[in-house]
Amino acid sequence: MNNISGLTLLADQSTIQWGFMDEEFTLTLSGIDQVLVDESRDLIFVLDQKESLPERLTIINAQGKILSSFSPPDGGAFYYMTVDSKKEVLIVCVFTGKIDGWSDWHFSFHQQTNQLVRLSRAY
């Protein structure tokens, strides 16, 4: 991977800036809550449209193209993002009802199918 560098969130402008292959990129979204780089795939994950919790997950490639945009899973809400040991971004969703006895779950972006996939319990 070529590595996204210098990711910066200008929270008051709801704008993110970063560098990739000697170019600078800027993207403005609405009400950005959290931004993380998926180093294993050179992708940027953004939780935005924040009300009490973020209402949208946007996934952007290193050149600034929006690849996917997701609403929270049925019965759930986006909560926060984290990075696993493979340096992939995981999205934690909370559910009002329990799924398999649990309320908080890690989801991953499956790039080939363009889907969010439930992976494991979030503790």
Plain-language structure description:
The protein is mainly beta and 123 residues long. It has one domain (5-121). The chain is built from no helices and 11 strands. The chain has strands spanning 5-10, 15-20, 23-28, 34-38, 43-50, 54-61, 66-70, 76-83, 89-99, 102-110, 115-121. The strands form 3 sheets. Strands 4-5-6-7 form a 4-stranded antiparallel β-sheet, with no helix packed on it. A 4-stranded antiparallel β-sheet has the order 8-9-10-11, with no helix packed on it. A 3-stranded antiparallel β-sheet has the order 1-2-3, with no helix packed on it. β5 and β6 (54-61) form a beta hairpin. The chain is globular, with a radius of gyration of 14 Å. The termini are far apart. The relative contact order is 0.15.
Task: Provide a short characterization of the protein structure.
The protein is mostly beta strands and 123 residues long. Helices cover 0% and strands 64% of the residues. It has one domain.
Q: How do the SSEs run, as a string of H and E? A: EEEEEEEEEEE
Rg (C-alpha, Å): 14 Å
Poorly predicted regions: none
Strand order of the largest sheet: 4-5-6-7
Report the count of strand segments: 11
Question: Helices and strands: which structural class?
Answer: mainly beta
Q: What attributes characterize this protein structure?
A:
single chain, four-stranded antiparallel sheet, mainly beta, 123 residues, globular, 64% strand
Q: Helices, strands, pairings?
A:
Layout: E1 5-10, E2 15-20, E3 23-28, E4 34-38, E5 43-50, E6 54-61, E7 66-70, E8 76-83, E9 89-99, E10 102-110, E11 115-121
Antiparallel strand pairs: 1-2, 2-3, 4-5, 5-6, 6-7, 8-9, 9-10, 10-11
